[in-house]
Fold this protein.
Amino acid sequence: MEFLYEYGLFLAKAVTLVAALGAVLVLIMLTTTRHRPERGELRLTHMSEELDALKHHLKEELLDKAAFKAYEKAQKAEAKARDKGDVPPKPRTFVVNFHGSLDAHEVASLREEITAILTVAEKEDEVLLMVESGGGMVHGYGLASSQLDRLRQAGIPLSVCIDKVAASGGYMMACVAERIYAAPFAIVGSIGVVAQLPNFNRLLKKHDIDYEQHTAGDFKRTLTLFGENTEEGRQKFRQELEETHELFKAFVGKYRPELDLTKVATGEHWYGQQALALGLVDEIATSDDLILKKSADRNLIKVQYQMRKKLTDKIAHSASTTVSALINRLVEKDRGL
């Protein structure tokens, strides 16, 4: 009985402790939520300052005391001249990253980032976009490309750098830029359209399962997962793909009229050096090269809009990322070194 009494007392204390901790956690979550922006948060990172700090640290470690003292004196004199207005301020380069998924939901952040830049950009400023995407939904990447076109319409120079991949919808975004950079082995191009789906109609018939689909309009549905597909539906589906491809080619041709679309709009992709020879990109360089080069005479500011995510959104994003990673691994396996 004494054991049961002590066990019951311990259990009561444990439950009380857990309940108290739960109440504290709920209070923290409510307080945090109350102070969070409703949609997201815009973050600015002064990349030039980070590079300057790195340079300062290395100089301090590598130079002797006299040389380092002279370096610091020159830096202070430059900063003083800039504060007095004797030296004009450096123009700004706004750096934006776009890591696209199949559904291009990242465009929700991109549109906020572009809007933020447009509100403060001056004529000397420019935008450097790092794209990494193998493409995906036509409407999603079409909207992302339209966001980049807002910069061009406003007269703000736009450059795009491709470190790994900008294919299909990714290249649709890249081609909007006045200048495209690519790493030597970045995957570029894939100006084509693809659609595929399984059909389980024979399997359903085998197990005596009926499937009904009712539409108003001859081509409300062309191909279906469970119904019996017709040749007429297949032809219409292929026609729609061809029409989308023609729109894709026209879009690329609008921004890069010098391209020979008969050569590059076949759905193939190329590596950076090959893409340069074909005119798909303008220069071979990595984003690290560009940032270091531009930091010499420009202020680099990274612009990132962080969307608030619900638990369901996080799960969906994780699933989308996993699918994208699996597809990319299959591509890499097919063309691995």
